[in-house]
Design the sequence.
């Protein structure tokens, strides 16, 4: 299958070493797809290195480091293709990784985005944090994955070798129709980084499209390349962005009640950090809420403006229970331990 209408776009910020390591495999295994590096104003010589070592790679230079969302939004305005693959710079692709994603999208015009199986580059038999075997979300807006719930990871034993509809596809390797991406005005730049791909997927689902997981394709992700789990900024972004995500996209029914309960759960998480001696992470939760309140009006304005594109509020692959309670109180740390009947199977 020809790849002339597919652009693999790698966002880079001071990742010269990662590009040197992983670009050769991406070029070798991506057929005729256009390979693009979108550079977020790097200062480590990345652009010069690309010109010297990878002359076939197209370079799009952003004027500043606007984070993941703005970086891709700016770069993709310059790239014409039927499909984009938003690929992290710390991903190793496997042979024939791209064809199954293309076939899946071509087989069903209602598929707006999909992702491959994401395994850990450092332990290739284990699922990786960012995406694993497809993303889901619970009724309070907490995301999780098949193969990874919070900090519990499963080994890949073929248990998720099915291609199926999911709630969200990971930004570490996001295959998306370009027209759908631009119709939704791309990624929400208020997120800066983390969960903006979940927001995009949720908006696409509410527009009537499907988000899929493709088990026939596999990539290997290092993860934590920009912000490690121990960095309070990651905690700040995850808590704040999750609240924005819920506010923008949740259906009207029980919305305010769920938002209130979600805030209570976040307070519990902040106290848990405090009692564990993680004062910086406790403060990150507080700052996340203050930042959310500061931009609440703008978030709600986006919620109202999005209604024009909503076909129906999708509940496909939505978990009707609370994953926090299941994981921390009931000890359910594998996807197979969750109640299958608690997942909505239809859009309503």
Sequence:
């Amino acid at each position: 299958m020809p790849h002339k209408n597919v652009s693999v776009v790698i966002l880079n910020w001071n990742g010269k070493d990662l590009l040197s390591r992983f670009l050769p495999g991406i070029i070798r295994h991506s057929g005729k797809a256009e390979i693009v590096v979108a550079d977020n104003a790097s200062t480590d010589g990345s652009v010069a290195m690309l010109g010297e070592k990878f002359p076939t790679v197209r370079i799009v230079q952003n004027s500043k480091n606007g984070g993941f969302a703005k970086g891709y939004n700016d770069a993709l305005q310059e790239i014409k293709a039927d499909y984009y693959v938003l690929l992290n710079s710390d991903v190793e692709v496997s042979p024939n990784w791209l064809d199954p994603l293309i076939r899946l999208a071509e087989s069903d015009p209602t598929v707006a985005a999909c992702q491959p199986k994401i395994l850990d580059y450092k332990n290739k038999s284990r699922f990786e944090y960012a995406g694993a075997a497809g993303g889901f979300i619970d009724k309070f807006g907490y995301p999780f994955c098949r193969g990874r719930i919070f900090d519990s990871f499963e080994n890949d034993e073929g248990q998720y070798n099915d291609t199926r509809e999911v709630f969200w596809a990971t930004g570490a390797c996001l295959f998306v129709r370009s027209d759908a991406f631009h119709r939704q005005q791309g990624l929400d730049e208020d997120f800066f980084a983390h969960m903006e791909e979940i927001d995009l997927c949720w908006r696409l689902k509410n527009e009537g499209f499907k988000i899929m997981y493709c088990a026939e394709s596999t990539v290997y992700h290092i993860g934590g390349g920009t912000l490690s789990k121990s960095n309070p900024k990651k905690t700040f972004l995850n808590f704040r962005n999750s609240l924005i995500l819920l506010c923008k996209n949740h259906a009207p029914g029980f919305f305010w009640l769920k938002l209130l309960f979600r805030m209570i759960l976040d307070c519990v998480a902040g106290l848990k950090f405090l009692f564990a001696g993680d004062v910086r992470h406790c403060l990150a939760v507080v700052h996340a809420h203050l930042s959310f309140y500061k931009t609440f009006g703008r978030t709600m304005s986006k919620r109202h403006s999005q209604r024009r594109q909503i076909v129906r509020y999708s509940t496909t692959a939505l978990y009707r229970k609370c994953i926090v309670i299941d994981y921390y109180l009931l000890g359910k740390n594998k996807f197979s331990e969750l109640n299958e009947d608690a997942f909505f199977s239809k859009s309503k």
